[in-house]
Amino acid sequence: MSPKTLYDKIWDDHFVTNRDDGSSLIYIDRHLVHEVTSPQAFDGLRENNLNPRQINTILATPDHNVPTTNRSKDVNGIKDPISKLQVVTLNDNCDEFGINQFKLNDERQGIVHVIGPEQGITLPGMTIVCGDSHTSTHGAFGSLAMGIGTSEVEHVLATQCLVSQKQKNMMIEIEGVLQKGVTAKDVTMFIIGKIGTAGGTGHVIEYCGEAIRNLSMEGRMTLCNMAIEAGARAGMVAPDEKTFNYVENRPFSPKGEELKKAVDYWKDLATDSDALFDSKYLFSAEEILPQVTWGTSPEMVTHVEDVIPQVEKDNKNLLDALSYMGLEPGTKIKDIELDQIFIGSCTNSRIEDLRAASEILNGNKISKKIKRAIVVPGSGLVKKQAESEGLDEIFKSAGFEWRDAGCSMCLGMNPDQLKEFERCASTSNRNFEGRQGFKGRTHLVSPIMAAAASLKGKFIDVRDI
Amino acid sequence: MKNSNLYSGEYVCLDKANVDTDQIIPKQFLKSISKSGLGPYLFDSWRFNDEGYLGKKVSERVKNSEFVLNLDQYQGSNALIARENFGCGSSREHAVWALKDFGINVVIAPSFGDIFFNNCFKNGLLAIKLNTKEVNQIFEQQINNSQKQIEIDLINQNIQIPNLESIKFEIDDFRKTCLLEGLDDIGFSLKYENQITDYENKLKTSRPWILNDK
Ligand code: SF4
């Protein structure tokens, strides 16, 4: 048999059939559902008298529209009636079709991409979809996890299959050891800076090399989360002992004999040593420094010790970006003054992120220049864990607001938003125009860089702390 | 949604690369639980200077008179030409619904975000990849010669623009059929229900943890 990549193996094991129009049907093992991209899909099922095919493969939760304060009132705490309707519609649809949902007041509620792994719903070797581009996060387990549109959500609900075409294989290897103060977030932003936001288009990226193996599972989730920002529909890391240890004893993961069988299967998934990739990149861990974005696309990124690059007069894209961001070429990253700090999102809202950020803040106060600093745990369970470790107290005494779980200011579909021209150091994944609020300005950074910046009101090199 | 083979009309050039779906339709409009009615909010923060919300009337809005889609000569355009990586970012199908609702039924660019590209064809929106040189030519025809007529022959896969040689384009057969025949995608897949059931039966022994009752 010819050697295969991890992606090839998962593809082959999920291949159902070819349709006679030349596309393939790929079996889907897990389907995560949230309130924003599902209402029209459920309408479609009703119109066509269809039912979800495999109810046990689906988990739903509201995350995008949910308020991060005052949650005792359940959906009645959602002030915006249109947001509320969307969350209520998810409730109704899940009830009608019998779908398992972690509702707003369930302590297991959270961002879909945080709760899947937390519950053991995400497992190695699976195909996982969600009507959300950051589904790529789950690739950290060595699964093929893809964001899909609403029509595809409906299709997967009805058929348990995705109409697909095989993508190309890309390998990104990071050799060596990361410097202290350099995190998975910096690695993933660094890669995007190198290959561009379209660099991975049409590919599935497999991340490998010493620096990747050394990342914790949570770090690998951060890494794969932003594979979509590199244009790839999926990013993945081969499962290893760390992965198996992580999934063991989760509520939905296999137990006993079944787990043994599963682990045997997962162990065979790693890319064969002589497998062929369509493209390969090799970077050295030592060259990666703490990253900060300065523009309106994740590829407009540099390291904290750098300055904003010079822009040629006819480079409309960069000029537009700088004008939107209110920045000039040559400005030092460390001279950029901030209004808000956001620690959260499916990129960086897990327990390790909160621990690392709180370590920087411990015993310190945020700068008076910062108008608001908020921490939004990725799930109710992350929040509970953090509180049991006393992290909430550290954040609060530093001057941060301690919120309830949800997407929050990652995209501000709820009330957490930037005001016009406010500038934010954010641990999320997209610095697009208006993403965090109308005319708001976003700089993407790691949780420790965000925490460090909160102390000075400006970016500082976290390695200096 | 069945489309005819011929698309003809006027095109408008949006001179921006990496147009993400957050720009095509900003987040506040994703609160809609319906597919229709999103056209008025297409490119909302570029077309308008005030902040929009679902239900806000266009007549109450402050138009950005410089934005290309607001220029008089491009009113009624049904083809949008853009730079590379159009539709990158979020998976929101609302971006395609908004384009269609606005009246755009063709998008041409050197490259597209993968999820957006898929979403287009599921909604009868023709997305065409051309090389950068060809896209540049189409831009130049508009900028230098005020050209906006465009005709696309889907069956023969070519684009006609006055004063330009006809441009051939590639399209996957299944996407082409899907546009021409207006296939019911789910119905089409359900023709393979036996194969899906066979797969599921095997799954019960090969990877039993997948379909377990939880
Ligand atoms: S946290 Fe942000 S990126 Fe992640 S699912 Fe929510 S909105 Fe999307």
Report on the structure:
The complex is a heterodimer of chains A (465) and B (214). Helix content of chain A is 31%, strand content 16%. Chain A is α/β, with parallel strands linked by helices and 465 residues long. In chain A, the strands form five sheets. In chain A, strands 5-4-3-6-7 form a five-stranded parallel beta sheet, with helices on both faces. Chain A has a five-stranded parallel beta sheet with strand order 17-16-15-18-19. Chain A starts with 5 loop residues before the first helix and ends in a 9-residue tail after the last helix. Chain B has 214 residues and is α/β, with parallel strands linked by helices. Chain B has two domains: 6-181, Aconitase, domain 4; 184-214, no CATH class. In chain B, 32% of the residues lie in helices and 14% in strands. In chain B, strands 4-3-2-1-5-6-7 form a seven-stranded mixed beta sheet. In chain B, strand 6 (158-160) and strand 7 form a beta hairpin. The radius of gyration of chain B is 20 Å and the shape is globular. Chains A and B meet through helix 2, helix 3, helix 5, helix 10 and helix 11 of A and helix 4, helix 6, helix 7 and helix 8 of B. Residues 63-64, 111, 113, 132, 134, 345-346, 407, 410-411, 428-429 of chain A line the site of iron/sulfur cluster. Iron/sulfur cluster (SF4) is lined by residues 63-64, 111, 113, 132, 134, 345-346, 407, 410-411, 428-429 of chain A.
Please specify the SSE layout and strand pairing.
The complex is a heterodimer of chains A (465) and B (214).
Chain A lengths: L5 H9 E4 L5 E4 L2 E4 L5 H9 L10 E3 L20 H17 L2 E2 L10 H8 L7 E4 L13 E4 L2 H10 L1 E4 L3 E8 L8 H12 L7 E6 L1 H4 L3 H9 L8 E3 L4 H7 L8 H12 L11 E6 L6 E3 L7 E3 L12 H10 L14 E4 L7 H11 L10 E4 L4 H9 L2 H8 L2 E2 L20 E4 L14 E4 L2 H10 L9
Parallel strand pairs in A: 3-4, 3-6, 4-5, 6-7, 9-10, 9-12, 10-11, 15-16, 15-18, 16-17, 18-19
Antiparallel strand pairs in A: 1-2, 2-8, 13-14
Chain B lengths: L5 E9 L6 H4 L19 H4 L31 E4 L11 H9 L3 E4 L4 H9 L3 E4 L2 H14 L3 E5 L4 E3 L6 E2 L4 H9 L3 H6 L2 H14 L8
Parallel strand pairs in B: 1-2, 2-3, 3-4
Antiparallel strand pairs in B: 1-5, 5-6, 6-7
